């Protein structure tokens, strides 16, 4: 089993469990957060004004009750004699205005703080995402083989989105709620400690039921998310391989695989709704009990003259609104815990160090002559399974080397090492006398062109597809490369010529056309070293001829590595390297190896013996020797 590139995830459930993660997130992303300090400061000021306005909300009502309605009763222990002596109608007018004013102030402050916070969060997250994407591009192939692409995509999309959403809908309201709650409890005790204690008596009950139900909601949501992940993975796999799925008539089976998590996710979603609804009702009843208790004692205190009716009103109002933020606390804490997990997943990804990177003191590669030397190179993808074993050979600048031999022998691996997609475990590869690792990676790769069996084209215009070979190539260079690749004429015949946008992976073009665009892309690079990995496999005779012509032009004067199973194409190479089981078994030119009379010669004869007609039409050439023959040639 492949070892994962990431540490094992542990999801935090409580705020205290999430604390170390939150600290890590703030520390890691502090540079991005700091850039938004102006917006964040405005948001904080707005937040404080919002909390104060929220606390002030019931006070105009209290004054209307105590100083307007009960003005003439004289039964009040009035705290503000100045108000008691004022004109009640005037006071009514002022406090009515205050009702609107306080609400307006609260609304405006909430708006400003939310908008600025959202903007700051979006900017911070966009910076993080850009950094993460750039980092991803630098990671080595070996890393990509140990992770699932779906997992990476989730990290760069939904994990990052969650971080933003939770900042705006979790952390921010949590701060508002906590400050409001503290303010309300303080004011309640200030107004009357006895009533405050009575009112808060049901609080433990409330906390208990709230935490219990929220935990259950959390558990069900987590299960639901898992189901959604399974659905996404099934869908991604099926869409990515739709051709094979349809060809093998796997639609029904895949629909079945999709249906189970879909059904379970639906059931979990209904369960979450049900639990939320029951939490809501429980809280309503607890609020009613608290209100009844406060009224029962409060009215007696009012009648006894130690509390004003207005105070009681403020009390009941606070009681009602104090429960609301507390109820949301659990939800926000759950969201923050989830976001912490997401944030840590992003940091884990950022912490992955590219296995292949510029070494200390690496130099910008000068324009290569193209001398390549493999010097006792050994390599393995997994330490227990060596792929290349002590392999050595030299290629002179401008020479063409054909890498031939049975499938799985290590030919593609060898050229991956030349591109420094991996580094050898032992030995070295030299270009123009210097170890590859002494060159800056980008300057090395810029001087190597590749054409693969199934060259990947992108869903952009033909022009851009070619220009990707050398970013910044001029229109003239692009067209020259297309002409060299025998592609110019067919490109002009496309609906919008060079501006025709290709479908994803260029699937609307024929195999030969795709290859010719790929050759143009390699040509525009004007690289002194070219790698061709079975570039004509799967093409019909006519396309093969056009592509071969284009390849000959592409590789003229370049050091060329041609991987092929078809020994007709390797015949003219300056050197033929027969690789089997990670070792170079035979090395020489065609006539030399034929004279040697070993494996290459046997395979060549075997291929030649195949019915020429079949060779021409179905490419069913034997690519390796039968087992008995392999033994006799040892
Ligand atoms: N990313 C990888 N991780 C682990 N093993 C790999 C990886 N890529 C290739 N291999 C293994 O390395 C060995 C050599 O593969 P490679 O593709 O280099 O051979 P090849 O000679 O080019 O084969 P073919 O002619 O079929 O293309 C094979 O056993 C293959 O299974």
UniProtKB/TrEMBL annotation:
The chain crosses the membrane at residues 90-114, 171-190, 196-214. It holds the Pfam family ABC_membrane. Residues 372-606 form the ABC transporter domain. Keywords: ATP-binding, Cell membrane, Hydrolase, Membrane, Nucleotide-binding, Transmembrane, Transmembrane helix, Transport. CDD domains: ABC_6TM_exporter_like (cd18564). GO terms for cellular component: plasma membrane. It comes from the Bacteria. PANTHER family: ABC TRANSPORTER, ATP-BINDING CASSETTE SUB-FAMILY B. This is Xenobiotic-transporting ATPase. It comes from Hyella patelloides LEGE 07179.
